[in-house]
């Protein structure tokens, strides 16, 4: 079985030339010639899955459709309102 040899990547004068080159060439052939990339990822938002009763989910979905908003947006809005009400009662 023949060994895969990494091809030498040609020099490009611009990012545009590099993009055009890889539109017609397999990037896998040049992986060893690619520079190492370092970056940080900071995920700020988390998603929580919460079970709803079927009839409740159906009603929320119907109201959200009538308001032309996603169900998730409507539920978040209602929960924020309820939490603010409770915070006022508690203070």
What do these coordinates show?
The chain is built from 3 helices and no strands. By secondary structure, the chain is mainly α. The longest helix has 20 residues, at 71-90. The model has no long low-confidence stretch (mean pLDDT 89).
List the helices and strands and how they pair.
Elements: H1 15-24, H2 54-67, H3 71-90
Helix pairs in contact: 2-3
Please estimate the helix content: 40-55%
Q: Beta-strand percentage?
A: under 5%
Which stretches of 5+ consecutive residues score pLDDT under 50?
A: none
Question: For the residues shown, what is the average pLDDT?
Answer: 89
* Tally of DSSP β-strands: 0
Shape: elongated
Number of helices: 3
Return the domain count: 2
Distance between the termini: 76 Å
Gyration radius, in Å: 26 Å
Indicate the structural class. Answer: mainly alpha
> How can the largest sheet be summarized?
none
| SSE series | HHH
Entry keywords:
2 domains; mainly alpha; 3 helices; 91 residues
In short:
The chain has 91 residues and is mainly alpha-helical.
């Amino acid at each position: 079985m023949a060994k895969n040899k990494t091809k030498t990547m040609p020099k490009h004068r611009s990012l545009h030339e590099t993009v055009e080159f890889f539109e017609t060439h397999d990037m896998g052939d040049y992986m060893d010639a690619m520079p190492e990339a370092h970056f940080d990822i900071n995920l700020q938002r988390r998603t929580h899955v919460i079970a709803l009763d079927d009839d409740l989910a159906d009603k929320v979905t119907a109201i959200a459709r009538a308001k032309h908003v996603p169900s998730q947006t409507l539920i978040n809005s209602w929960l924020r309102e309820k939490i603010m009400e409770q915070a006022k009662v508690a203070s």
